[in-house]
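User: Predict the complex with inosinic acid.
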Amino acid sequence: MDKKEVVIATTNQGKLKEFKRMLEPLGFKVSSLADEKVEIDVEETGKTFEENSLIKACCIHAKLPNKIIIADDSGLEVHALGGFPGIYSARFMEGQPYPLKRQAIIDRLKDKEDRSANFTSAISLIGFDEEEHVFVGKTFGFIANESSGDSGFGYDPIFFSPDLQKTFGQASPEEKDSVSHRGRALKQLEEYIKAHLD
Ligand code: IMP
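Assistant: Here is the predicted structure with inosinic acid placed in the model:
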């Protein structure tokens, strides 16, 4: 098997785009579930990002046993809301457009002084070697008073990054990748893969 061919276990186009732009320059051939004609019909029953990430990766690995599978479970954790929406970031107000979901987070912080938040990404790797791996990356910031910028996806326009001095919605793809939760988790995955390639 070519160790550099990976399938990303997601239907989220925003995530897929980020994985492609980070993994392709490293020499990986990245395919999506659509490319593989596989549907993800997995219930996220885990209580943590790590558990849900492994659940997704295992489910796809069972369908594509000869491929290297990478899955990501990620979300926004708002500290004054006890870490909400956390693992429910995609399911919170499901079916509603992101502008409304972002506004709902801003509204919930109306009377709160603490606007700190972080994104977490748990990236699983299965089928590369005999082990199952999970790499976790985090990035810290603040929930802005209003949405700014239209880059990225999901909650990016309300996440102000002190590292970048702008919201992820205002950041270029390269800027976001350099400090993002997913960029940081991928860096660890990349180091692991590089250290273990034959
Ligand atoms: P998952 O697909 O179940 O892992 O849900 C991830 C959800 O978390 C996304 O649909 C977004 O709502 C949110 N999220 C995760 N990563 C990001 C990001 O990089 N930017 C903005 N929102 C994100």
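The domain at 5-196 is CATH 3.90.950.10 (Maf protein).
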